[in-house]
Each structure stands twice: as structure tokens, then as C-alpha cells.
Fold this sequence. Notes:
2 helices; alpha+beta; three-stranded antiparallel β-sheet; 74 residues; 36% strand; single chain
Amino acid sequence: MNVILHLHRKELWFTWPPTVDNLTKCWKERNDCTVHNLEYWLGVLEGGEAFVLEEYGSSFTMPPFTLCHELNQE
């Protein structure tokens, strides 16, 4: 399990389950899911969730190999 601890700023998180299809799509992009922007991955990956972290000290867990992207508000 990966534990994500929120320490500062407002953050918007997107996560996708590590399904065979999702991992295959990332692997085909040279094993680097950062090749494309978030808009691309929102349209390609399946089963995504989005949530906002605002409270200092809040946390969540992700299963191994969960695909994620985080946006923070400076």
C-alpha cells in the first residue's frame, strides 16, 4: 500500500485502478504516463476517481501500482 499524507495546499487528485488495460496503455507510452497531459489520460484510462484534499494532515492509501496525477493550488 502507498500512503499519501497531505501536508499543505489544496490538491486535486486523480487515480485510476491498476487494471491490465490501464497498465498496458501506460506501458505502450514508453512506460511513462507523463508523456501526455491530464486531459489525454482522462479520456484513455478507465475507472478513474477524482477528489480534493484540503485539510492539513489528511491522508489516503492507494493499492500498489495505482496510477495517479495530482494538481496543486499554489
